[in-house]
Amino acid sequence: MLGTKLTGVAMLEMLLVLTLLASGLSAMLKIHTHNEVMWQRFTNTYCAHLKSSENTAQSRLLDKGIEVDWNNGWLCQCGIGSTPGCKTAL
Amino acid sequence: MAMALSSLVASAMLHSVSWLVATHQQQNARITSWERELVVRQTFQHVFLRLRQGLPWSSFDCASDQSAQADSLLGTAPDSLLSVTGSDDDSAPSRAVRGSDVITIRHFGCAGYVTEQYFVGRHSGGKGDERFGLYFRERIGEERWGYSQEIMLGLPRITVERCDTVCQPAINVPGFHSAEGLRLAFHWHEDAVLPFPVSYLTLVTPAARAISLSPGSL
Lengths: 90, 218
Fold this sequence. Notes:
By secondary structure, chain A is mostly helical. Chain A contains one helix and no strands.
């Protein structure tokens, strides 16, 4: 009788520990996903802003008859969407 | 059994706390990097506007938080987080820079003079594969030049100064009225979490000539 009771308590403890671990892991996963999603969203917005302002500035230079031959590749890995000067659309 | 479970729980809690701290620091570093990028971009836009109007760079007040932020970004070399610098190509043709005007970018912190960087602009008379633009000189008097992505169009001379304590606010910055545009490269010293190691900024003057304004009007 005592042995069964002890086994039951041990099982309950194990269940409690497993629940704690599972909820902890789930919370960590949620935090990680939230961080990544927010960061991705922020990066995409900022990269779009950078691309737009660079494109505007360069077209204004072209309007002045100034040739623009410099490196545009620095924004290739920035955000989503195509970037002028990149070999492949991202 | 109970001891084993307790140690398992304690270890898991310890690891989660350290994971949380690391995640927080990573996210913090990401946001800080973007904020710095933005501040530098806005700062140079402001500088460009002021210089176009014949005003010195005196946009920071030493007593303000903004000044401390600018100091941490632009001041106290070599610990500053940012420099306006050339690429690692040291084989730039010296012919392109001979006889060109030296462009000095000086940083004045609130405590006074901090650092100085020298650039030389190539004029339109260059030949061959010499590209129009600015060449970064590592030290004054040194014959090593690095081509940099910065381009300054039609600009014979520029002195960018933070004039908090040193410069006279009414002194005009000569030569900038002929500038058509400016392209600057910011090289980040610290490990970048940004998707690019070097940031570029292209600034173009408006079609209409800027009107000279009095220093107090900005």
